[in-house]
Design brief:
Growth Hormone, Chain: A, 18 helices, elongated, binds the ligand CC(C)C[C@H](NC(=O)CN)C(=O)O
Amino acid sequence: MGKGKSKVVCGYPLSIFFIVVNEFCERFSYYGMRAVLVLYFKYFLRWDDDLATSIYHTFVALCYLTPILGAIVADSWLGKFKTIIYLSIVYAVGQVAMAVSAIHDITDSDRDGTPDSMTFHIVLSMVGLFLIALGTGGIKPCVAAFGGDQFGEHQDRQRRTFFSVFYLCINGGSLLSTIITPVLRAQECGIYSKQKCYSLAFGVPAALMVVALVVFIIGSGMYYKAEPQGNIMLDVCKCIGFAIKNRYRHRSKQYPKRQHWMDWAEEKYDKLLIAQIKMVLKVLFLYIPLPMFWTLFDQKGSRWTLQATTMDGNFGALVIQPDQMQTVNPILILTLVPIMDSLIYPLIKKCGLNFTPLKRMTVGMLLAAIAFVCAALVQIQIDVSTKQLLHSSPYILSGQGFIYFKLTIKGKANSDSTTVHNTDKATFTLRSGSQSCEYSTNFGFGSSYTFFIHSTLVFGSNCQDSVTAVEDIKPNSVHMALQIPQYFFITAGEVMFSVTGLEFSYSQAPSNMKAVLQAGWLFTVAIGNFIVLIVAELAKIPKQWAEYVLFASLLVAVCVIFSIMAYFYTYIDPTEIEAQFKKKINEDDEDDKSKPGKAEVEMVKRDSIKCHDEYDKATQTKM
Ligand SMILES: CC(C)C[C@H](NC(=O)CN)C(=O)O
């Protein structure tokens, strides 16, 4: 049985249907908007690459810092349900602000197609992004934990499946939106003049966020809504502070040692709270090495995409753009999660191996390191095969009766006048006054040519013989398909690390701190992103393949540390521990009533021994 008033369908509370649909729409909204954001900065707000990149990363980092805020509000004040509703409204307003900020006609009073007051668009979009970061980050730890709350104590298996399905929905939403919003952006729209339609590319995610909110509200009557339990974060901080102070005060040898430094808070704080803090601290300690995984993982969107720009994206009928390679990740997630859940994990279990969550996460880290070794191998191949500048054509041929122009064939989404975006035959028209002629040639992906037009050119229908094409940079010969192995390994790593970590964070958290631990988990993503910025700034390794190897080595080192920490971790059942504590506290209350006047110091000592026994009993299983 689930915990809410929800019907049970195939062993699952019906209420979780609304939660997973909500997550699907929300992730569609988030990833759809994010997919076109850098291009919006660059081509609509007219920012340079550096500014666009920094603001983009600051926004992403903010999205993973705000979960802490959302978790505090949910756990200590509003509860998860209300927090999700209120912050979803903030989120939807932010998305609408983004869509409005991208309507060029609003300030285009001279109707020339460009906004007249860029300040208006910049301010509105920054406000929009701030609200989105607050909304998406704020609800993130609440939605997963709220979903987990819907399951009863004996529904561990169903809850695990829920977290897998939840992850599938994240990636289903992300896959669809990263395909759709770039297409919407490429459309032309406008009232007075037609421009690239960023407003539509932001408008559809805004609409999906409204749908997410409506779906969540429809399920309202079915949810189990755990009550918030006071300002838990403040209590936690005060309790830890008191334990440290009390320990310091009693540092002399005449005072007997206590089993755990948190036990020094026993004089003032509830034993249940102390036990809960111990549980959280144990998990948070284990989180310390985790950001390194995200450091590698999030380079899909940066380094790997840049690597793809130097590769051949011609898949026959389909020419793949470098940024489109990122869709391989959600595609593989949608394939791998069911395979892992229904085939690989049961098979490992059948072989008698206990593949615990922490072991899965360790393997996930190793797979991510392997992905970076693959990326390094691909990079070496690219370096060997390409980009020898054959010669500098203008230098060699200048002053010999030619005029020339240079042409670069890129794999990018936007063009200047001398950039061609595919590998098809291109035709140029050469004009002089009313005379013209045509020249056609084939191009390779990523190549660069200089065209020399003979001064003896005679205009006619064809000027093929009067133009000489010189290849300055060879076409990219290493195919983008070679990136698939690295995507495969990083995604397999993600399934083992991230899907497992999400469930682990929920299952090991005390009932009143579930959202806090989800936020702690997401905080590791934010730190991972900061590490990318720091390493990229500091290391400045000239060879890209060497940087990949450095990151792989760092992750392997961190992975060894993590596996040692994980070996000493004992799994707990927070519900059982809490129940035992509550029972014991009730018994003690009864005891106190019947034996008044008992020395308080003795009581504290005895209670402490009992509590330790119960805590120890409940923490048996190792890594
Ligand atoms: C980084 C997030 C914790 C995980 C997740 N992303 C993906 O699943 C991408 N494959 C998300 O919640 O967006």
